[in-house]
Q: What sequence folds into this?
């Protein structure tokens, strides 16, 4: 892993903030140039813990992810951006994405002037292992090598998961870093790639509070990786990257962990129920099996369907311009009444 990191990152002397140099409780804080007066009444006049220790300890207790193997990000997007910065030299290195997939991987690479190479998923939305092996830096003389490979599992927008045995095979054959984005993993019964962290130092897993935990507005992501990479990430990320209100919101939700898991189970049941129901609609040609909290379906005319639903106050995602997703729409699994309403409105559409 160390050989893959950019030289300037290896030699980086990280910024040391006031809360890095003192931990614990004191009576007077005059070290961080904060305002002594708490106008909010909630302690927002003080800088937050830059390492989110209390939150990471509760993540260990509730999710089983050791604190030594976690870093908290301002959403998973910050972690994705920083991983590209840590490993990829601008205008020199490249990453691998596997479309159709989450669009932010390419955007952050473009921002960082890092080339993006693509390996299309097969028609069943699974990875072509033999083709994947061509992109490893082990074979860098062929010009196809990539420093990072991003796997979204369960995948957005398809909902398909990659089997843990496939991910392990990829980790064995790939000379770069394998980034597994598990934003939707709580809705799947597949084994998490976090089970491979201690075995393969080139595996990084990204998780989030945005989906199952319903905290999209707070922007709290989790990187799970080797302690060595966590240390590097801590030196690269912004000093106070996750604000106190977001840390507190995540902590409050972890206290409701069992309740959230029960509601998650209801979402999964509803997803499978509407998978069957949407298949009966005249305007729907195919519904793809999903391990996430949404369904992707191929329709007769996604543009018209989205337009009609929007006129009725219903917003779904048109994925028509995404490769392999022509005339597809993606529908998030909402409440029972929301799902029933969109089903009813779609059943009345005539094309």
A:
């Amino acid at each position: 892993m160390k050989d893959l990191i950019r030289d300037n990152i290896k030699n980086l002397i990280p910024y040391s903030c006031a809360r890095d140099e003192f931990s614990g409780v004191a009576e007077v804080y005059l070290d961080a140039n904060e305002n002594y007066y708490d106008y909010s009444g909630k302690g927002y006049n003080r800088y937050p813990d830059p390492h989110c220790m209390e939150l990471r300890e509760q993540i260990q207790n509730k999710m089983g992810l050791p604190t030594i193997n976690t870093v908290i990000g301002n959403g998973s997007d910050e972690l994705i951006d920083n991983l590209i910065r840590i490993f990829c030299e601008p205008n020199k290195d490249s990453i691998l994405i596997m479309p159709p997939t989450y669009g932010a991987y390419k955007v952050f690479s473009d921002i960082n002037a890092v080339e993006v190479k693509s390996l299309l998923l097969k028609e069943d939305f699974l990875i072509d292992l033999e083709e994947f092996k061509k992109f490893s830096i082990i074979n860098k003389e062929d010009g196809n090598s990539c420093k990072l490979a991003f796997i979204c599992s369960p995948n957005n927008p398809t909902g398909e998961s990659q089997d843990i045995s496939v991910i392990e095979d990829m980790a064995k054959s790939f000379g770069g870093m394998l980034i597994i984005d598990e934003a939707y993993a709580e809705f799947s019964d597949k084994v998490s790639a976090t089970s491979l962290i201690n075995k393969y130092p080139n595996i990084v897993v990204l998780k989030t509070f945005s989906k199952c935990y319903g905290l999209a507005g707070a922007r709290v992501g989790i990187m799970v990786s080797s302690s060595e990479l966590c240390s590097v990430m801590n030196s690269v990320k912004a000093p106070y990257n996750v604000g106190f209100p977001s840390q507190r919101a995540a902590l409050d939700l972890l206290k409701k962990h069992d309740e959230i898991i029960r509601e998650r189970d209801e979402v999964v049941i509803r997803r499978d129920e509407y998978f069957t129901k949407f298949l009966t609609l005249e305007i729907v040609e195919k519904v793809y099996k999903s391990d996430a909290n949404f369904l992707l379906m191929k329709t007769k005319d996604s543009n018209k369907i989205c337009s009609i639903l929007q006129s009725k106050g219903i917003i779904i995602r048109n994925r028509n311009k995404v490769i392999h997703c022509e005339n597809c729409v993606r529908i998030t699994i909402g409440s029972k009444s929301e799902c029933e309403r969109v089903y009813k409105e779609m059943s009345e559409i005539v094309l």
